[in-house]
Amino acid sequence: MLSIIGISIILITVALLIWGKASPIVAMIIVPLVGAFVAGFGPSDITSFFEIGIDRVLDVAIMFIFAILFFGVLQDTGFFEPIIRGMVRLTKGNVVTVAVGTAAIGTIAHLDGAGATTFLLTIPALLPLYKRLGMSPYLLVMLVGISAGIMNMVPWAGPTGRVASVIGGDPVDIWVPLIPMQLIGIILVLTLGFVLGLREKKRIQKTAHSEAAATTMTDADLNEALESISNSGDPKLKRYHLIWANAILFILLLIVLIWNPLPSAYIFMIGLVLALMINYPNVQTQMDLIKAHSPSALLMAAVILSAGTFLGVLDGSGMLESIAVDSIAILPAAVLPVLHIIVGMFGVPFDIITSTDAYYFALMPIVESITSEVGVVSASSAYAMMIGNVVGTFVSPLAPAVWLAVGLAGIDMGKYIRYSFFWFWGFSIVMVLTAVLIGVV
To answer: Could you give the C-alpha distances from 113 to 62, 198, 265, 268, 272, in angstroms and in order?
Structure first.
């Protein structure tokens, strides 16, 4: 009975998320609550489940609030703009170089872990370049999306926070073993940019407008692209003269995060305070910036806390354990030790049909419970599923940031999915197999 109710809770939650009938916060709070009552648990039991779940994710939620605020402030200062402007200058006029440069720019732009910000910063800047060279805007969005997916493994981005919520632990501790995978992923996406750049160059040469498209950008075209970068954000908040101070702060924060002498949430608190003091000593400006970035920070924290209650009910009630035990009795014995790898290799299509939240908060707990029963370490299961899924967010129509990217590029969502789906999926499969080969999974 516990298995049936647990699976029903998960399926109903997934269905509500897929069809957009409820927000993640509503679905992950109300559905398990009803399920717990149906299973015969009373208010005192549910209170215990709630406390278990909240304790599991509280540190993660706090870290996310201050990480998003920290990177929001850095973004306001124009910290990332010089790097992106330099990449645009470097890649002008060469189709293959532009494709590789797009992958590099997407990687840099997503250091803050926010998909919407990444697309707002990169697509308006690079689209004039693509149009001038006759390159496909679908290629632009795809390369930025895959690059952003690789960087989405950082501890202040959504996937790592979700994994920390499911298996417990500090997001930074979860991230450190993934650093080699991120480095490999960056090399792979730059290589993919080179290959697709060659393909795009051949396509352009076959078109009727190839002669016009193959010419080098004019100074006006370049200035238009550079101006769009500079125009992103409020000019009054730019602090270009403090870029070196911000660079030192950013590097020190990363070093301290990896060294981990303090809780990651506290590290981001300190980082935020220093960023505000260095760039905006005026108290009112500091408060205005915190208010401006608070909606994004609080929304992510609310999702994480809601997931905590969801997992608290499933775990504290014994539903996850019951599902795992019953699944082991049904699934072939040979599949169980590699179930996480199999699911990870289907991470991209799963993201499209289930949504990111459902993948991590509904599917991952089941897989982790099943594989742990046959001796697979929880972190290994989580890494396989995360690595296989992490790029999938940016090809999924269930992700609002993708709709933003499609709108900014002036392309069609259906055609974008057809154009890029198998590249995303193939890339994720290569990443999962690589993780197995180097022992991360």
So the answer is: 16, 29, 16, 14, 16
**Which residue reads 């399926």 in tokens?**
11
Q: What is the largest CA-CA distance in the chain?
A: 74
Q: Is the dihedral of CA 155, 393, 429, 360 positive or negative?
A: positive
Count of other CB atoms within 10 angstroms of residue 436: 18
Residue 240: Cβ within 10 Å count: 12
User: What secondary structure letter does DSSP report for 77?
Assistant: T
Tens digits of residue pLDDT in 12-42: 987 887 677 888 889 889 999 999 999 999 9
Residue 216 gets which letter from DSSP?
Answer: P
3-state class (DSSP) for residue 208: coil
- Per DSSP, 399 falls in state -
Task: Specify the pTM.
Answer: 0.71
Residue 195 has which token pair? Answer: 């290959």
Write out the E strands in 285-407: none
Place 354 in a pLDDT band, splitting at 50, 70 and 90. low
Residues contacting residue 407 through CB under 8 Å, at least 6 positions apart: none
Task: Report d(CA 103, CA 142) in Å as an integer.
Answer: 9
Q: What distance in Å separates the CA atoms of residue 217 and residue 204, rounded to the nearest whole number?
A: 15
Q: Please tell me the distance from the alpha carbon of residue 411 to that of residue 402, in angstroms, as a whole number.
A: 11
